[in-house]
Amino acid sequence: MQSLTSPRYLKELLERHGFHFSKSLGQNFLIDRNILNKIIEGARVTSSDYCLEVGPGVGTLTRALAEKAAFVAAVEIDKRLLPVLEETLEGLDNVRVIHGDILKLDIGRLAADVFSGSPFKVVANLPYYITTPIIMRFLEEDLPFTTIVIMVQKEVAERMSAAPGTKDYGALTVAVQYYTRPRIVARAPASVFMPPPKVDSVVIALERRDEPPVMVKDKAGFFRMISALFSQRRKTLLNTLLASGLTDLGKEDLTHRLASAGIDPRRRAETLSLEELARLYNSIA
Ligand code: SAM
Prior knowledge:
Helix content is 39%, strand content 18%. It is of the alpha/beta class.
């Protein structure tokens, strides 16, 4: 089989299948062997690994993963790609392609089924129109992943690894850094894709933490507060909390609680570190 990262071969393959790219499904296929290798190296894939890929496209990353891993399950929404994948993944007996929408599938059940409940790695070149909801699903659903290695839009990678007080710091940053340790693996210009997207990309690895870096009284409640605080970025903590319905405390009590937690109620959420956010939550929960 010819290399799937060869633009000429990819064109010929897609033409033969009468396939046209769908912009709305975020279809930008990888045509760069170097970046492909970096994704695989970044995920540190070994022969005992189970891998879940989101959006295999024509199977470029899927093939490379299958050559290294014990088993690869790949979820693709576009049924026009299924016959293409049948051709490009032929002969590989450690790959299963699942036709479905990653946002609607019961991923826990799928993983229990295809990986027999073993921990797995998520490795993907994500469709950019749903990057954040996909990441949030993996983080929030308590799925047994060990690492997520994904190609995302540069701006999303910056949000995931942002520091407090910067414009990129927000609810996604807090969720990613609560559950994982982000590490930039590689930067990728638009030219590594066919067709090239309008944005630059970054491969980022999110290594799952054994323990969260902060203790919160109730995880679901903490993340409800995070969502309320960062949806009103310009408001002070005090005003957002009073309007949020998250607490029955009045202005005076709330001011007192925040002050005794060592947090100035006039600050904005985006200036608080994860540790301060946890302290804030525990003081009002
Ligand atoms: N992995 C391939 C590569 O690296 O060349 C393709 C990556 S392309 C950026 C994203 C892929 O995700 C496309 O194949 C697209 O059809 C698929 N996709 C888009 N939305 C999806 C969804 N909700 N669930 C599963 N796959 C989806």
